[in-house]
Amino acid sequence: MLKVKVLFVGPCESGKTVLANFLTESSDITESSDITKYNPTQGVRILEFENPNVTSNSKGMGCEFELWDCGGDLKFESCWPALMKDAQGVVIVFNADIPSHLKEVKMWYSCFVQQQFLQDAQCLLIAHHKPGSGGDTGNLALTPPLTKLKLVHSNLEEDPEEIRMEFVKYLKSIVSSVSESRDREEMLIFT
Rounded to an integer, what distance in angstroms lies between the CA atom of residue 51 and that of residue 90? Predict the structure, then answer.
């Protein structure tokens, strides 16, 4: 079975843990207190899950995912190299309603994507809208190189299935990339 490691990173109070819990079906978002109460992640939480909609090949071989929900506090920066080791994907979550988060996204991208030599296709930007924020999905002032990344908006109050669908698409692309890379490595062994 193929194992895939995906990091959830981004500024403090962006909604990473709530999204991680929802997308891995670790908690029920119908409890409004679950999505409004802020409890900062200390270091990292690792959520293991399988998704029946994502397989690693045409034979339907399953995949195991590790979603590493990383705390957004910069005091954990010394731990980042250990968190990044063997990551095949990075999801940068930010609160679209906090202007400083837009500025911080570039730093997260630089550290977790560029410095790790990941491809832009291995990165997903999620502009998370917290309950009661209105969820304005208008144009965000992203600057290059962030404009090349896939950007999706999430609002768990108004349209939770939209973000789930986008996340499954993202997982499928990561699995495809990992499978192709593994196949190339196996072919090199035989030649």
Answer: 18
Q: How far is CA 72 from the centre of its chain?
A: 13
Q: What is the pTM of this model?
A: 0.89
pLDDT digits (tens, 9 = 90+) for 57-116: 656 677 899 999 999 999 999 999 999 999 999 999 999 888 899 889 999 999 999 999
3-state secondary structure of 118: coil
Task: Look up residue 88 and give its amino acid.
Answer: Q
Cα three-residue angle 101-104-107, rounded to 5 degrees? 160
- Report the share of the chain in percent with pLDDT over 70: 88
For residues 109 and 148, give the distance between their C-alpha atoms in angstroms, rounded to a whole number: 12
Among 33-42, 50-59, 65-74, 124-133, top mean pLDDT goes to 65-74
Alpha-carbon distance values, 37 to 17, 40, 95, 153, 176 (Å): 11, 10, 15, 20, 36
Q: In the numeric block, which tokens belong to residue 84? A: 């990044």
Angstrom distance (rounded) from CA 173 to CA 100: 30
What is the Cα–Cα distance from 43 to 71, expressed in whole angstroms? Answer: 5
Residue 127: pLDDT band (50, 70, 90) is very high
Instruction: Specify burial of residue 23 (Cβ count, 10 A radius: 0-12, 13-18, 19+).
Output: buried
For the purposes of burial, counting CB atoms within 10 Å of the CB of 162, is it exposed (0-12), middle (13-18) or buried (19 or more)? middle
